[in-house]
Amino acid sequence: MGRRNKKGRDITGIIIIDKPTGRSSNHVLQQVKRLFNANKAGHTGSLDPLATGVLPVCLGEATKVSSYLLDADKQYHVTCQLGVVTDSGDSDGAVVSTSDIPEFTEHDVLALLPSFIGELDQIPPMFSALKYQGQPLYKLARQGIEVDRKARRITIYDIKLLSITAVSFSLDVRCSKGTYIRTLVEDISHALGSTGHVTMLRRVAAAGYIEQQAVTVEQLIASSENGVAVLDELLLPSEDALSDWPSLALTDYMVAAIRQGQAIKVEQLYERANVRLFDPLQQFIGLAEMTEAGMVQPKRVFVLPVQR
């Protein structure tokens, strides 16, 4: 049987999308993939349909760095409406209960926030993409089924109060991967003596990318009308995704060995670290792990030619 032809272009790079509200991250991903006519695409962490903001989309060989970006830290702006609980934890869900809202001040909120900073054990919500016996939790939740979920260790690096009203508050949250902002908001609401749900959620930074770098789907569509070359100018280089990783310059001989999956020995020493690999033409060819002794084991190797 012959090899099946790949559909789409061998285009490689990262585009930062400003995800609109009301659409799933996968829907946006597929639209971006079609606009670029890319043969491969993947995003680096879903946003809820309600949420907006930074959604890095990796195209082509850049999909090989997406799992590393998924593990990166995030930053969100969120608004909580007090006194109302929904089944999903946000305003897309159905109201399941209401409660009184006590009087509170800015000082009261600021006094609570430090207790939510640091390492915390957080139980994921039922309305999440985590799976139970192969089934996404949100599908079970829509059937009215609730199952036990294990608490997961997360880190909240910082929380800033952006604004308050008599019935709501808005926060800036910097956190680790795996953090559910809806759950955090519910917990803070309980600490205030009430309940609450998310009415606005925006990711303003993810994996080192910030909202100022993001383009809207509408901007992409407008650019596509001038041809894919104009779209390609919007792509960011794959190596920029992990700019905090050390880089290694390899010889042609080393590149050949890496491409065969072989570990190589280098003289340049670091502490044990993940590293980015570059060939003699300074093309980014992949990712590797290096030991203190200078042994470099390839982890993700790009297929050249690598474009932007």
* Assembly form of the protein: single chain
Question: The CATH topology of the largest domain, please?
Answer: Pseudouridine synthase
The description of the largest β-sheet is: 9 strands, mixed
Radius of gyration: 22 Å
CATH class of the largest domain equals Alpha Beta
| Shape descriptor | globular
How large is the share of residues in beta strands? 25-35%
Uncertain regions spanning at least 5 consecutive residues = none
- Listing every helix as H and every strand as E from the N terminus to the C terminus, the arrangement reads EHEEHEEEHEEEHEEHEEHHEHEEEE
CATH homology superfamily name of the largest domain: Pseudouridine synthase
Strands, total number:
18
CATH architectural category of the largest domain:
2-Layer Sandwich
* Number of helical elements: 8
Question: How confident is the prediction overall: mean pLDDT?
Answer: 89
Topology, element by element:
Elements: E1 13-19, H1 25-36, E2 41-43, E3 52-59, H2 66-70, E4 74-82, E5 84-86, E6 95-98, H3 106-112, E7 118-122, E8 131-132, E9 135-136, H4 137-142, E10 152-164, E11 168-175, H5 181-191, E12 196-206, E13 209-210, H6 217-224, H7 228-232, E14 247-249, H8 252-259, E15 264-265, E16 273-278, E17 284-290, E18 295-301
Parallel strand pairs: 3-12, 14-16
Antiparallel strand pairs: 1-3, 2-3, 4-11, 4-12, 5-6, 7-10, 8-9, 10-11, 12-13, 15-18, 16-17, 17-18
Helix pairs in contact: 1-6
Fold and architecture overview:
- The chain has 308 residues and is of the alpha+beta class.
- It folds into three domains: 13-71 and 209-239, Pseudouridine synthase; 74-202, Pseudouridine synthase; 245-301, Roll (Archaeosine Trna-guanine Transglycosylase, Chain: A, domain 4), CATH 2.30.130.10.
- It is 20% helix and 33% strand.
- It contains eight helices and 18 strands.
- Strands 1, 2, 3, 4, 7, 10, 11, 12 and 13 form a nine-stranded mixed beta sheet that branches.
- The model has no long low-confidence stretch (mean pLDDT 89).
